[in-house]
Write a structure and sequence with these properties.
The structure holds two protein chains of two kinds. By secondary structure, chain A is an all-alpha fold. Chain A contains eight helices and no strands. The relative contact order of chain A is 0.20. The model of chain A has no long low-confidence stretch (mean pLDDT 87). The chains are: A mainly alpha, B mainly alpha.
């Protein structure tokens, strides 16, 4: 259980999928909702989709692809599973998650997490722990960047630096800062 | 029809340079070498060219969700074939691309093919898609070249930089470089606008 907690915290800090793998940058390239609440919702939705997708991919990989020697189809099966999960979530929660699910699907964090886990399985629980950690890491960054955007001090920056350029420089600085957590 | 519409972002229907930024998102990590960046962008260009034609043919007969599945399947097939080729001929490039090669299937330039071609301007939309993809190949190749120079000081095994700037090729440094390049581009554009006025 302690190891699971370590994985989740690692996913948020020193193994952050955005800052160490450069995955999940889609929302930071201008496709991010405009309030902290909506960003939190997007981040948590991404986390849940990632966790479910990792379990589904684990099942498909271990129970179907490996026994039938169809491992070369792993990318196709994984992306189609992710699409099915997103479409089902859209059918079930359409009223609550308007326009968030396409952003989750197009965000490489979800597909990237499953791809990083493929072939490196140490059990479904560990995979879910990693996915939840990665998802919470993305959520944290979405909130940090949105908070920076809305701070009055940001308006003091030159107009050419505001918005996306400042967000990327901030993400780079954050990546440097969290590198200090590596090796704990 | 409701399901098809809810999975479409308004951004997908736009045909402007703005699309190049979100298109860059899933590929940025795979730009460690110029050769890898070019290969990745070329896979996306080929996928756009093939899926564009197929979506054009299917648009009037098949639902959007079915076209999306078709688009993803074709793109993953292209990426997998290129992956097999690299494994046999250039394992180092395959290693650089790692998980970023299959991510071509969720690239916005590819996914938008499944929502285009529903009106009368089909060939125009196809031409614009190809043009955007060609620009994307150029952008990603330049970025890959820049990152290779920063990481190794070399480009195609020719020494370019004598000083060690490898930090700026690592993820943290690359994010700062991307932010700086975006800021420089904006500053240049705003100064040009001021000069004209």
């Amino acid at each position: 259980m302690a190891e699971l907690g370590y994985m989740v915290i690692g996913g948020v800090l020193w193994n952050n999928i955005v800052l160490t793998y450069l995955l999940g940058l889609f929302p930071f390239f201008g496709e991010r909702p405009s309030t902290v609440k909506a960003n939190l919702c997007l981040g948590l939705t991404t986390t849940v989709v990632m966790a479910v997708a990792v379990v589904a991919a684990y099942g498909a990989h271990e129970l179907v692809l490996v026994p039938l020697e169809l491992v070369y189809l792993k990318y196709l099966v994984t992306i189609l599973l992710l699409l099915i999960i997103v479409v089902l979530a859209d059918l079930l929660f359409r009223n609550y998650l308007q326009h968030l699910l396409p952003r989750v699907f197009m965000n490489s964090a979800a597909f990237g997490t499953v791809l990083l886990s493929l072939g490196d399985w140490n059990g479904p629980l560990e995979a879910v722990g990693t996915a939840v950690g990665f998802g919470l890491g993305v959520t944290g960054l979405l909130i940090v960047v949105e908070t920076i955007d809305t701070r009055p001090e940001t308006q003091l920056a030159p107009s050419w630096l505001r918005g996306m350029p400042l967000q990327f420089v901030t993400l780079g600085m954050l990546a440097l800062a969290i590198a200090g957590f590596q090796g704990i | 029809m409701q399901l098809n519409d809810s999975l479409v972002l308004p951004l997908l229907r736009r045909s402007s340079m703005v699309l190049l930024f979100p298109a860059l998102a899933p590929t940025l990590g795979g730009t460690g070498r110029a050769e890898a960046a070019f290969g990745l962008a070329a896979v996306i260009l080929v996928a756009v060219a093939i899926t564009g034609i197929i979506n054009m043919l299917l648009a009037a007969h098949v639902s959007r969700i079915a076209r999306l599945v078709c688009t993803i399947t074709i793109t993953i097939t292209c990426a997998s074939l290129y992956g097999f080729y690299l494994e046999a001929n250039s394992p180092a490039v395959r290693e650089t691309l790692d998980v970023f090669l299959p991510l071509a299937a969720i690239n916005i330039l590819v996914l938008r093919q499944s929502v285009l071609y529903e009106g009368r301007e089909r060939w125009n939309e196809y031409r614009q898609s190809i043009w955007l993809s060609v620009l994307f190949v150029a952008l990603l190749s330049v970025l890959g070249g820049l990152r290779e120079i920063l990481l190794t000081g070399e480009l195609f095994e020719t020494s370019i930089l004598a000083i060690d700037l490898s930090f700026f090729g690592e993820p943290a440094g690359l994010l700062i470089v991307v932010g700086t390049v975006l800021a420089a581009g904006r500053a240049l554009r705003s100064s040009q606008t001021e000069d004209q006025s």
